[in-house]
Amino acid sequence: MAFVEDATKLHPQHSRFRKGGYFAYTPWSFVTITIFNAVLAILVMIPALPLMFLIGLTIKLKDRGPVFYKGTRLGISKRPFAMYKFRTLPVGAQKTIGTDLFKPGTFCLSRFSKFLRDSRLDELPQLINILRGDMDFIGPRPVRPEVYDEVADTIRNYDLRFSVRPGLIGYAQLFTPHSAPKRLRALIDNKFITRKRKLSWDMLIISYTAWIIGLTALRKGTGHLTDLTRSQVFRFYSQTRAFDRVRAKGASVIVSTKDGTVLEDNAFLVDLNESHFKILSTIDLNGEDYRFVLRRTIRRGRRDRPKRSICHGKVYKTLPWKGNFKHVHIIAYEPVTPLNHYMVDQYFLKKSIV
């Protein structure tokens, strides 16, 4: 059985991808950044090898399929290269995904695969790409050729990303979730690309990212332990869901009918995931379709900024509750637009790194 799922054959090299005279580095910065990335990749890879071995062994034992995934991506000056990852999707999944982003629920992922994707440990093999000079630690994330074909002519200055090497850590990846519109992600990438000339900028972003990921891992680990304790010891939140729950602090929900008639303007949002959310309500929702407005306030500096997302949903399950709220509803929801989907991921599910 092969150890690498080779998806590069799906993308024959096309002359369009080899064009472009883009180069944002100065000669000195290119040399120093290349040396810095190579040295750092070696320093990271040495202690990471045991972890990578355990991940690979688990993947192999889990479904007997390839350990690694190799796919075509576009690098500096649009040069194609083979990018490596730990395989988390079923073999041949890219044929199904096409130009779309991977959506939760598209494939039945194991908890281990989901953990690899959420923790971004599936990206560890890209240290090989850094050593080969295909990628840097910091830069816009590499693009699939079919995605480039789709968006290159519709997003202004999209080709600016090819003036630098793609990165293991993407600028837009730091500040936005995967569901963010490509136009927004391209805008964020382009804002930072001009600073790529300085090695100090890479070092600052790497240090900051390591700090944030460490805090996030600690917070998520504590949250998982708390959920486990509450569900197994105290028997709270005993219902099971396909995805991990996230509690959006201070969030509430406006419940209305599809025609806009408000039924309740301050239902309490307990938690949510990619497909369902749980609310405490004073009314009994027994209809089919409702309109939900998820609301919460985000503190930015000294100012409070209200955030909201509009969703359509159906009552999946109703549970009994004692207290001021008479009903507990599990809602199967779907954001009404891609922008609302982004708002859910960014401000309620908190999927971005920062």
TrEMBL record:
This is Putative sugar transferase. GO terms for molecular function: phosphotransferase activity, for other substituted phosphate groups. Keywords: Membrane, Transferase, Transmembrane, Transmembrane helix. Residues 35-212 form the Bacterial sugar transferase domain. Pfam families: Bac_transf (PF02397). The keyword Iron-sulfur does not apply. Coiled coil: none annotated. It comes from Desulfovibrio ferrophilus. It comes from the Bacteria. The keyword Thylakoid does not apply. Belongs to the bacterial sugar transferase family.
